[in-house]
Task: structure prediction
Amino acid sequence: MNILVIGGARFFGIHMVKELLALGHDVTIATRGNAADPFGERVKRIRVERTDIESMKRAFAGLHFDVVFDNIAYASNDIKSAMETLDFNKYIYMSTTAVYDPKHMDTKEEDFDAVHKTLEWCGRADHPYDVVKRQAECALWQKYADKNWIAVRYPFVIGEDDYTKRLKFYIEHAMKNVPMNIDNADAPMGFIRSDEAGKFLAFLADKDYRGALNGSNGGTISIRQILEYVEKKTGYAAVIDSEGEEAPYNGTPAYSIHTERARQLGYHFSELNEWIYSLLDYYIDMVRRETECDPQKEAGIK
Result:
């Protein structure tokens, strides 16, 4: 199939493009062109400013795609510009489980009703992340229900290539005894590994499905469980203090993500406990190496 990927030059987008290529698809990636990608001559490239509708019109004039993956649409205005400038058979939007208000244990797709929520045309700077992502889905459900689209909802994406460094924050602070303000230490949370996030998206390219679709690894883990593992492996004790640095997953309630719809389509996510501790080991080793390379950093890391 002829596939356009808007974004795709970093994180799980790279995994997605690699999988699409492995499946034999003809892939074009559209980015600002500021970041290098590892695909060489295996992909076509288009430069575009995603937030500028005139740039979108110029970039995609006269082009048709079987599938469009939009990894960097945030707000309802982004959805509108895509629908007005792209010619496609299927549109796959990278949504988020942040649309659920709030997430909870066994969160299902129907727990967010974008059909009856008031739609506001907005840009990504107009509201917090969760609000603009809800509005993006409202645009899909209310204005473009006649289009063939999927809104894929992921929880926190983690992996060795995670540029956000949110999970690393906890390991690094624990190993350096830097106080952290953590307001949800015992809340179970769901995650998805970056390579599986990319592979699941690629899997959906030829699937007959419309609407919202959850993706997540099976099971949950709490921040306290993560810190207890780090303490056991390193001998250092995490310092949890309300006056400490604000932890990145603060404000997140206890939740898990229901993925039965994905399973019915034929995709089976791995269990979190099969790989999360290897990832924690990776970050433990990274913190040790970084500290050894920089004598100015806090001493004492084993």
Summary: The CA atoms of residues 105 and 256 lie 5 Å apart. The mean pLDDT is 95.
